[in-house]
Inositol-1-monophosphatase (Microbacterium thalassium), 272 residues
Amino acid sequence: MIAPAELQNIAIEIAREAGALARERRAEGVSIAATKSGIADIVTEADREVEALIRDRLRVARPEDGFLGEESAPEPGVSGVTWVVDPIDGTVNYAYGIPSYAVSIAAVSGEPDPRSWRALAGAVFNPAIGEMFHAARGEGAWLDGKRISVNPEPSEAGALLATGFGYDPATHAADLARVARVMPLARDLRRIGAASLDLAFVAAGRLDGYFERGLHPWDHAAGALLVVEAGGRVGGPDGVPGRGLTVASGPALFDRLLAAASEPAEPGLSNG
Ligand code: IPD
Ligand code: CA
Ligand code: CA
Ligand code: CA
């Protein structure tokens, strides 16, 4: 089996090229190509073009691996490794010209299902700022080659937290109730608009914690590895990030944040 560090290098190289394309398209002007499940769930031509570029590059570099991306049909592989790709995470920011969006590329082994996969390597690249977050399983997490780590403990004044709101308006009332339950732990709350950056920022100690319901595998695959490799915890009521609740933080805050963010009826704490 190929070493995680080698997969990481492939993810970094392709994320950089994909990010440059996203940035170039952004500079030319972006229009919304379609809405998917609702008004916030948009896709631009650039989302599709960037995913196609990543897919092409992976086909050449790793022809036997599988592929799971947001904008195209999944493709099983034969090597046991699958690439989980969000070509542009934060498409609403991208479409509005807010420089908080990212290319997220992860390599996982086993079934391409967050409940059982092992994340091996990941890269989260924000091309607007030029920041590359990257991690390799068992080896650590870095921002542009410098080691990063989670905040071991939030300040006594409270935690700087981030969240997101799902695209389904039917869940907004529950999301707001969750925010109300969590606020007693918070110094302040951010809605950055790109789950991969929320997770990368937890890994880098820029945020103390993050919680959101309804993430897809490509939203969290690379970011969750960053958090774990930076010494943090990621999980949910079922113990893994997923379509239910995802919570990420340093170890000291995790259980309290998970308990506050969980639905009162959801099962209790898990190992994350
Ligand atoms: C979305 C962003 C957003 C989060 C949504 C995601 P997309 O991804 O990460 O911050 O709140 O849950 O779906 O659609 O911009 O790739
Ligand atoms: Ca999307
Ligand atoms: Ca996404
Ligand atoms: Ca996306």
Remarks:
- The helical segments are 4-28, 45-61, 91-96, 172-182, 195-203, 217-229, 251-261.
